[in-house]
């Protein structure tokens, strides 16, 4: 439970909508209310089974000759007091028409004509459809916009909770936001993996799997955000696993985690201190991941010296694998420090960069 709570907290801080799956009476709502209390944020609980589509799409109102979609009162309260939590409870008891109206709330953060402030974060809870009264499967588009976490309890946890208190959000509450370098490193790691396993980019689900986590370009981008948040919080492997499995599904997440473990990448800071000693890995995926990590570190540093050293590393890789070098050159070219002069390596790479359309 503590790992799930930490994953839940990191997702809320990263502004990733979360869905807690669990049996009735296991404390999902209490966990969300406890998180809101720990954060010091107000929370609005909206139960999908007793709502109409207009409660999310807005009620049509004619004013001054125009039709406006008036938001409900709960949405106005959230807009007036950010940061805050919007908690959609009993999600699988909401009929398909209501789920469709919820899509815009999750994706565009709009309720009727009201746009929710950036400080409003979204959480949901649901019972498995076979355990819910008049339960419905989640639609695939809605499921793909959520981080899915399984909320399970055991006798020992409940016994400890009744005597000494139930687990509460811990260090993740005070974790720093990801740095620019951590964000770039996470995105490049996901990009490198997808170049190796392009078949995992998009796997449309069928049947009951459509209502859980599945891989798509959207969910892989979310996975990169959560990976950066986990790195900033120094989260353990169990929490990272929950975040990735809940975003892209068990199979793709297992492959990605295993690939990360076996990469054995060099320290980017050490490479930039002595770029001429860098030996590109033989495997193209490792070469790309190593080069992307070095470039991300240089961009995050923001100084001309690191940026120029990264170009020297790119030049070494270009001799063996020019396609890998071009991908990293795009990152460096897009983040040139103010006033930085082009290093000599750029001229040496001119044919490769010209072929990629990066220079005229």
Task: Give your account of this protein's structure.
Helix 8 (180-196) packs across helix 9 (217-232), helix 8 (180-196) packs antiparallel against helix 13 (284-301) and helix 13 (284-301) packs parallel to helix 15 (322-334). 42% of the residues are buried. Strand 6 and strand 7 (114-115) form a beta hairpin. The longest helix is centred in the C-terminal third of the chain and has 18 residues, at 284-301. Among the domains are: 18-145, Rossmann fold; 268-355. The protein contains 17 helices and 9 strands. The protein is globular. The model has no long low-confidence stretch (mean pLDDT 85). A 5-stranded parallel β-sheet has the order 2-5-8-1-9, with helices on both faces. With 360 residues, it is α/β, with parallel strands linked by helices.
Shape: globular
Main sheet strand line-up:
2-5-8-1-9
CATH superfamily of the domain at 18-145: P-loop containing nucleotide triphosphate hydrolases
CATH architecture of the domain at 18-145: 3-Layer(aba) Sandwich
Q: Structural class of the secondary structure composition?
A: alpha/beta
User: Poorly predicted ranges (pLDDT <50, ≥5 residues)?
Assistant: none
- The number of strands is 9
CATH-assigned fold name of the domain at 18-145: Rossmann fold
> Separation of termini?
56 Å
**CATH hierarchy class name of the domain at 18-145:** Alpha Beta
Query: Mean pLDDT, nearest integer?
Result: 85
Assembly type of the chains comes to single chain
Order of helices and strands: HEHEHEEHEHEEEHEHHHHHHHHHHH
Strand residue content: 5-15%
Largest sheet: 5 strands, parallel
- Gyration radius, in Å: 23 Å
Fraction of residues in helices? 40-55%
| Discrete helix count | 17
């Amino acid at each position: 439970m503590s790992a799930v709570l930490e994953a839940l907290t990191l997702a809320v801080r990263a502004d990733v909508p979360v869905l807690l799956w669990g049996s009735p009476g296991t404390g999902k709502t209490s966990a969300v209310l406890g998180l809101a209390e720990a954060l010091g944020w107000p929370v609005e609980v909206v139960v999908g089974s007793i709502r109409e589509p207009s409660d999310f799409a807005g009620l049509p109102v004619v004013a001054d000759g125009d039709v406006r979609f008036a938001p409900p009162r709960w949405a106005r309260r959230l807009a007036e007091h950010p940061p805050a939590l919007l908690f959609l409870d009993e999600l699988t008891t909401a009929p398909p028409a209501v789920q469709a109206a919820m899509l815009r709330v999750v994706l565009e953060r709009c309720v009727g004509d009201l746009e929710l402030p950036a400080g409003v974060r979204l959480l949901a809870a649901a019972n498995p459809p076979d355990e819910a009264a008049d339960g419905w499967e989640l639609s695939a588009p809605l499921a793909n916009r959520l981080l899915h976490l399984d909320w399970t309890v055991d006798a020992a946890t409940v016994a400890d909770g009744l005597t000494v208190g139930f687990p509460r959000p811990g260090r993740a509450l005070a974790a720093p936001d990801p740095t620019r370098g951590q964000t770039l490193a996470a995105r490049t790691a996901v990009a490198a993996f997808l170049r190796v396993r392009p078949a995992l980019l998009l796997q449309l689900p069928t049947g009951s799997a459509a209502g859980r986590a599945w891989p798509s370009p959207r969910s892989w981008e979310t996975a990169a955000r959560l990976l950066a948040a986990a790195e900033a919080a120094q989260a353990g492997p169990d929490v990272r696993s929950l975040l990735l499995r809940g975003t892209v599904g068990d199979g793709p997440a297992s492959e990605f985690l295993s690939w990360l473990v076996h990469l054995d990448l060099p320290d980017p800071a050490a490479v930039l201190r002595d770029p001429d000693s860098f030996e590109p890995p033989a495997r193209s995926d490792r070469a790309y991941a190593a080069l992307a990590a070095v470039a991300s570190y240089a961009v995050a540093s923001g100084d001309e010296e690191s940026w120029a050293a990264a170009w020297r590393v790119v030049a070494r890789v270009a001799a063996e694998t020019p396609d890998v070098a071009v991908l990293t050159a795009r990152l460096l070219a897009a983040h040139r420090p103010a006033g930085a002069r082009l290093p000599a390596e750029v001229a040496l790479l001119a044919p490769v960069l010209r072929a990629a359309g990066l220079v005229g």
